[in-house]
Structure formats: C-alpha cells, structure tokens
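hey so i finally got around to running the thing on that chain from the lab meeting. sorry it took forever, my laptop kept dying and i had to restart like 3 times. anyway pasting the input first so we r on the same page abt which one it is
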Amino acid sequence: MSTKKYPKYSVLMSVYTKERPEWLQSSIESMLKQTIKPNEFVLVEDGPLTEELDDVIEKFTTKNKKLFNIIKLKKNVGLGPALKIGIENCHNELIARMDSDDHSIPTRIEKQLKVLEKNPELDIIGSTVNEFEDNVKNIISYVTLPEKHNDIVKFAKKRCPFRHPSLLYKKSAVMNAGNYRDYHLCEDYDLYARMLQHGSKCYNIQQPLTHMRVDKNFYQRRGGIKYLKSIMKFKKEQLQIGFITKKDFIISGISHACVCLLPNQLRSLIYRKILRKRI
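ok and heres what got predicted. didnt touch it at all, straight out
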C-alpha cells in the first residue's frame, strides 16, 4: 500500500437481483484490495435481492462495518435512478464507479489519483478497458478510447467516450450536470454528454485499469427496438441542445440503427471484429 497522502474517495456500486453472487464478491474484493483504499463504499440495492446476494453483502459489511453505506430500495428502479440516489449519498467529492460484475486491477485508483494530482482541473478520469469472458484471466479483447479532452469531446459526438466502471469523477461535476437520469442503457452516455456540455474536463488513461465482463447478453442488450428508441431519443436531445450537428445525428443514428436491428450473432460479430481489438 502507498504511504503517500491521497484524497479520500467513495466507491459507488449498484446491484440488482439478477446478478450472480460470485461476480458481486469478486467485484467488491477488487475495490477493497486497491493500493489506495476507499473510506466509503456506497452500495445501492436496486430492489430486493436474492438470499445469496444478501449473504455476500452481509459478509463484507460485517468485516467492514464503518466502510459500507448500504442503501436498500423497495423496488427495482433501474441503473440510472439507483446511481442518482447513490451519488446523493456519497460523502466524498471523489467517487469511483464500479459495476457489480466487473474487476479493477489493484493499482487502478492510485493511477487515477496520480493523474488528478498533476491535473487538478480534471472532473472525469477514465481508462481503456479489457473485456473478458467467464474468468477475469480469460481476456478476449480490449477497448481503446481517446486520451485527451478535446479528442474525447469529438469522439463523444459519435460514440460513448468512457467505460462506466473505469471512472473516477467529482461529485460536484456530476451534480452540476444534473446527476444521472432514467435513460434505458444510455444513463452513462447521457451523463457524460451533459457533463461535457457543462464544462467538465476529462482524460482517459491509456492503460486498461478495469476488466469488463462480456457474454451473449452483453451484445443482446445493445440491440432491439427498445434500445434503438432509447438511443435515438438520446441523439435527438443532443441535437436539440446543440451538442451534436445534424450530420453527426444522421451518421451516428444510421450506424446505431443498423447495429441494433441486426440479429444478435451478427451484432456480436461487429462488436468483436470492428469495435474492439482482439487480444
């Protein structure tokens, strides 16, 4: 563990009943094993959980009574609204996002805090990510993302410029942009666009600090009419407020429509062969 004095930070995670307990355990452990430890772990239970998930959470809270802030929602509200409540309950300015089925390398937060130390004006610090199937050691691909602010803004007009569970961001910047909203599978992209519009400065570390889990459901969720309607609603809103141009809207809209309406097997092929780099 580093002996250098770094600012305190909160971990923010949401979990719901369909998550697998072994994935949740691995994800939480990866954040507790950071070389720079969190002093708060805000875990939002998005509706009633299974007994197995409850057991995992109880095990961690029993060992770390002062660390965990468990927020129990009476019903499942979705990721955006759950994270909105979670943000509001974080007591630190710095918040590390983490998903309940992914994995962070031990030095993730330390590397992000070192970037912030050199660039205190930054509001969002992400990274490239590895993608894995089944086991975190089975890395199958990685996602490259633009590094510097201007390139990130340009990229954001066409595609999502960050990977959600890789982020360290400032609570004040999130709140200034209006916090998370209920936006089906676009809640993260929607937040980033509003943060950028409100002047947030950002950076992506060009090293994979987070491993993201992918399976057949990962690609299936990014298809279908419901997702297409959500992404087109999002794109239309960005056009109306001037974040993207008509040209951006047409190009990205057609691209998303084509991918969304493809059979899942073909869509997964596009993600794997074109939108990702194979290991």
